[in-house]
C-alpha cells in the first residue's frame, strides 16, 4: 500500500470532510445536470420518439417546437439513394379553450399515420392511429388532463376556433411549455392553417440509420438555404436552445460552480491541515535530504485518493437519488458522457486542491527541529 | 602550533592543494571528516541580539562518537545545525569530506545531506500512519538509494540490528518511547551515512533506554565508521563516547579527548591503551 494511501486510511477521520465534500460536489454536478437534461429532453420528445433519421426545416429553426413553414416541395431534397421514406410534418402552438374555463397553450403535432409512417411518436398505437384518422381528433398525455381541464377520453374542447375531441391517451409524454396534442397531418393543417403547400418539417428515414449523417452533410453543402439535421443533432439543438434561452444553463453553471467551490475549499483545507500536521515528520525527511518534490507527490497522491473515494461514495447516492427522482415523476438523465464529465471535473477539483495545499510544504524547515 | 594557526595553515593547504582535504593529515595519520572554523551565528538585532556561536572551531573524525555538552541556550543545537548544513552561520566555514558545505548551493547541500547525513532529533517525528518498517523503507525509496526489494532487505536487517524485528509492523502509537527512538535511529542510519547528527536523542527517555540509544550510536561509529556528533546535557553519556566538547555562551571552551580505555565495555581497546 502506498504511504499516501496508508496515511489516508489511518487518519480517515481527518480526511473524511474532504472526501465528503468531493463526493457532494460530484453528486451535485451529476444530479443537477441529469435533472436539467431530463427536463429539457421533454422539448425534443417529437424528435426522440419519432422514427425519422433526418429532419429538414427552415434555415433559422432553433428547435423542434419553433418550426417555421417551409415549402413541401423541399421533400425532393431527400430524394437520395440512402433515404427510404420521406414525409411531411406539421407542428405549431395553439390555444386550448378549457371546458372548465380559461385557456392553455398547446403544441399541435401532426404527422402521417400509416403503418410505416415515421412521424408519429412511438407511443401512438395502431388503435390510436386509426382513431386519429378521424378529422379533429387528438391524443394527449393522460397526465395533462388537469392542465387541459378535461377528465376523460371523449372530452371535447376548442383549439384555435375549431372543436377537437380527445380520442385516446399516452403516457410519459408530458410537455414543458404546453401539452402535446398528437393528431393526423390533416387535422394539424386544419388547426394551424399554414399557407398552401407549406409544412413545418420534412422527415426522412434511411435504409441504414448510420447513413443519415452522410445525407445531412450532402444537403448542407447544397446552395439552397435549408437546415438539415440528423435526429440526434436536432434533438441536441432543441435541448440546448431551451437550456440557453431560459438561462437555466447559467443557473446550472453557477450552482455547479458553487458546489465545486465548496468541494475545493473543504478539500484544500483538509489537505493543508493534514500536511501541516505532519510538518515535523516532513522536516526530518528534508534534513535527510529527501527532495521536496517527493513530499509534494505524496500530497498530490492524497488529493487523488480523496477525489477517488469521494467519487466512489457519490456514485451509489447519485444512482439512488436518480431512481427516486424518476419514480417521483422527475426525469433524471445520466448518459455516459455526463458521468465522465462529472467525474473528470470532480477529480480535477480534488487535484487542484492538492496543488494549492502544497503551499503548506513551504513551511517545512528542518532547522526548527533542533531545540 | 596554536589551534588558530593550524586551521589557517589547513585553510591555505586546502586552497592550494589540488586534492583538497582528503590529503590533509593531522600528523597522527587520522584524517578528519569534518572540520569547521570561525563559526559565528547571531539571532535578532540591536538590543535583542543574541550571539549563539562565537568563532567556534571543531574537528570530528570518522569512527568516533563525539558528545557536545553545555547548558541550555549555550548554542549546542545551533552548532549542530551549522555543522550539518541545516542553518547557515554568519561567518566561518564547514568542510565535510571534500565539500565546503556553505559554499554549496541549496540543491547541492540537499544532495550532500541525502548522500552523507543522518539526523536524530529529540522528538521522534515518526509518521503516525506508518509502521516501523515503512518509516525506514520510505527513506531508502524516496531518496532513490534502492528499489523496493533492496529497501525491504536493508530495512529488515537494520530493524533486526535495533532489536525491532518483532515490532516491524507496529505503528508509533504501539511502540514505547525507547522503541520509537530506535526507529528514529534506524531511519537516520539506514542510508549508512558518513555523518550522523543527533540532537538530545536521549532526553525523552529513561536512563535504561537512553543507554541503549547511545550504545547503538557508538556501535554505528565504531563498527560502521560513521562520524557521529551527539548534542546532550546528560553527563551519564560521557563514559559511552569517544570525545566530549563543551560549549558555553557560544564558545567552545573545552575539547576533551577522552582516553579510549574509559569507553564502557571496550576492554580490548582499553588494554591496548
Question: Can you describe this structure?
Answer:
- The complex is a heterodimer of chains A (371) and B (273).
- Chain A is built from twelve helices and eleven strands.
- Chain A has 371 residues and is of the alpha+beta class.
- In chain A, the strands form two sheets. In chain A, strands 1, 3, 4, 5, 6, 7, 8, 10 and 11 form a nine-stranded mixed beta sheet that branches. In chain A, strands 2-9 form a two-stranded antiparallel ribbon.
- In chain A, a hairpin with a 5-residue loop joins β3 and β4 (103-111).
- In chain A, α2 (12-41) crosses α11 (292-327), α2 runs antiparallel to α12 (336-357) and α9 runs parallel beside α12.
- Chain B has a domain at 32-122 and 194-272: P-loop containing nucleotide triphosphate hydrolases (Rossmann fold), CATH 3.40.50.
- In chain B, the strands form two sheets. Chain B has a six-stranded mixed beta sheet with strand order 6-7-8-3-9-10. Chain B has a four-stranded antiparallel beta sheet with strand order 2-1-4-5, with helices on one face.
- Chain B is built from eight helices and ten strands.
- In chain B, 45% of the residues are buried.
- With 273 residues, chain B is α/β, with parallel strands linked by helices.
- Chain A binds chain B through residues 3, 6-7, 9-11, 278, 280-281, 283-291, 294, 366-367, 369-371, and chain B through 77-78, 80-81, 84, 86-87, 110-115, 117-119, 121-123, 125-130, 134, 138-139, 142-143, 171, 187-188, 191, 199-200.
Largest interface, C-beta closer than 8 angstroms, per-chain residues: A-B, 24 and 36 residues
Overall pLDDT score of chain B: 80
The main sheet of chain B comes to: 6 strands, mixed
* % residues in beta strands of chain A: 15-25%
Biggest sheet character of chain A: 9 strands, mixed
Calculate Rg of chain A over CA atoms: 29 Å
Amino acid at each position: 500500500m502506498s504511504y499516501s494511501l496508508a496515511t489516508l486510511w489511518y487518519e480517515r477521520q481527518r480526511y473524511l470532510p474532504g472526501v465528503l465534500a468531493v463526493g457532494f460536489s460530484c453528486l451535485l454536478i451529476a444530479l443537477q445536470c441529469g435533472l436539467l437534461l431530463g427536463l429539457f429532453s421533454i422539448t425534443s420528445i417529437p424528435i426522440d420518439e419519432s422514427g425519422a433519421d433526418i429532419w429538414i426545416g427552415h434555415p433559422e429553426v432553433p428547435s423542434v417546437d419553433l418550426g417555421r413553414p417551409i415549402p413541401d416541395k423541399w421533400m425532393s431534397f431527400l430524394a437520395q439513394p440512402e433515404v427510404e421514406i420521406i414525409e411531411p410534418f406539421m407542428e405549431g402552438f395553439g390555444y386550448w379553450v378549457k371546458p372548465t374555463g380559461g385557456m392553455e397553450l398547446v403544441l399541435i403535432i401532426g404527422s402521417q399515420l400509416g403503418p410505416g409512417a415515421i412521424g408519429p411518436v412511438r407511443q401512438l398505437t395502431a388503435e390510436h392511429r386509426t382513431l386519429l384518422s378521424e378529422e379533429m381528433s387528438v391524443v394527449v398525455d393522460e397526465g395533462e388532463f388537469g392542465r387541459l381541464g378535461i377528465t376523460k377520453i371523449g372530452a371535447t374542447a376548442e383549439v384555435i376556433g375549431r372543436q377537437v375531441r380527445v380520442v385516446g391517451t399516452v403516457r410519459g409524454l408530458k410537455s414543458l411549455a404546453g401539452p402535446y396534442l398528437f393528431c393526423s397531418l390533416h387535422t394539424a393543417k386544419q388547426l394551424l392553417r399554414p399557407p398552401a403547400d407549406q409544412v413545418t418539417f420534412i422527415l426522412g428515414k434511411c435504409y441504414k440509420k448510420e447513413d443519415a449523417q452522410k445525407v445531412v452533410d450532402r444537403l448542407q453543402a447544397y446552395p439552397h438555404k435549408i437546415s438539415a439535421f440528423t435526429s440526434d443533432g436536432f434533438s441536441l439543438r432543441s435541448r440546448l436552445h431551451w437550456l440557453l434561452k431560459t438561462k437555466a444553463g447559467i443557473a446550472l453553471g453557477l450552482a455547479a460552480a458553487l458546489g465545486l467551490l465548496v468541494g475545493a475549499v473543504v478539500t484544500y483545507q483538509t489537505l493543508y491541515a493534514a500536511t501541516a500536521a505532519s510538518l515535523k515528520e516532513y522536516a526530518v525527511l528534508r534534513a535527510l535530504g529527501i527532495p521536496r518534490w517527493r513530499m509534494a507527490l505524496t500530497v498530490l497522491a492524497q488529493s487523488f485518493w480523496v477525489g477517488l473515494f469521494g467519487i466512489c461514495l457519490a456514485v451509489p447516492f447519485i444512482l439512488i437519488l436518480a431512481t427516486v427522482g424518476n419514480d417521483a415523476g422527475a426525469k433524471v438523465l445520466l448518459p455516459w458522457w455526463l458521468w465522465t464529465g462529472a467525474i473528470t471535473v470532480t477529480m480535477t477539483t480534488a487535484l487542484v486542491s492538492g496543488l494549492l495545499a502544497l503551499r503548506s510544504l513551504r513551511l517545512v524547515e528542518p532547522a526548527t527541529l533542533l531545540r | 602550533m596554536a589551534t588558530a594557526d593550524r586551521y589557517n595553515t589547513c585553510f591555505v593547504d586546502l586552497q592550494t592543494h589540488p586534492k583538497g582535504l582528503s590529503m590533509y593529515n593531522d600528523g597522527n595519520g587520522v584524517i578528519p571528516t569534518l572540520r569547521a572554523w570561525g563559526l559565528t551565528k547571531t539571532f535578532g538585532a540591536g538590543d535583542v541580539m543574541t550571539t549563539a556561536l562565537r568563532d567556534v572551531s571543531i574537528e570530528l573524525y570518522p569512527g568516533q562518537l563525539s558528545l557536545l555538552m553545555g547548558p541550555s541556550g549555550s548554542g549546542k543545537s545551533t552548532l549542530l545545525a551549522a555543522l550539518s548544513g541545516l542553518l547557515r552561520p554568519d561567518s566561518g566555514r564547514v568542510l565535510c569530506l571534500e565539500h565546503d558545505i556553505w559554499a554549496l548551493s541549496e540543491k547541492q547541500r540537499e544532495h550532500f545531506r541525502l548522500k552523507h547525513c543522518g539526523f536524530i532529533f529529540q522528538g521522534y517525528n515518526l509518521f503516525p500512519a506508518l509502521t516501523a518498517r515503512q518509516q525506514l523503507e520510505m527513506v531508502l525509496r524516496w531518496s532513490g538509494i534502492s528499489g523496493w526489494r533492496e529497501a525491504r532487505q536493508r530495512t529488515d536487517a537494520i530493524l533486526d540490528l535495533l532489536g525491532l524485528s518483532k515490532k516491524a509492523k507496529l505503528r508509533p502509537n504501539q511502540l514505547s518511547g525507547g522503541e520509537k527512538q530506535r526507529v528514529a535511529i534506524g531511519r537516520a542510519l539506514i542510508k549508512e551515512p558518513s555523518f550522523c547528527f543527533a540532537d538530545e536523542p536521549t532526553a525523552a527517555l529513561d536512563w535504561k533506554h537512553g543507554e541503549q540509544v547511545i550504545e547503538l550510536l557508538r556501535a554505528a561509529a565504531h563498527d560502521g565508521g560513521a562520524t557521529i556528533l551527539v548534542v546532550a546535557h546528560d553527563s551519564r553519556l560521557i563514559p559511552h563516547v569517544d570525545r566530549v566538547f563543551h560549549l558555553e555562551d557560544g564558545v567552545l571552551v573545552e575539547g576533551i579527548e577522552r582516553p579510549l580505555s574509559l569507553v564502557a565495555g571496550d576492554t580490548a581497546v582499553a588494554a591496548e591503551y
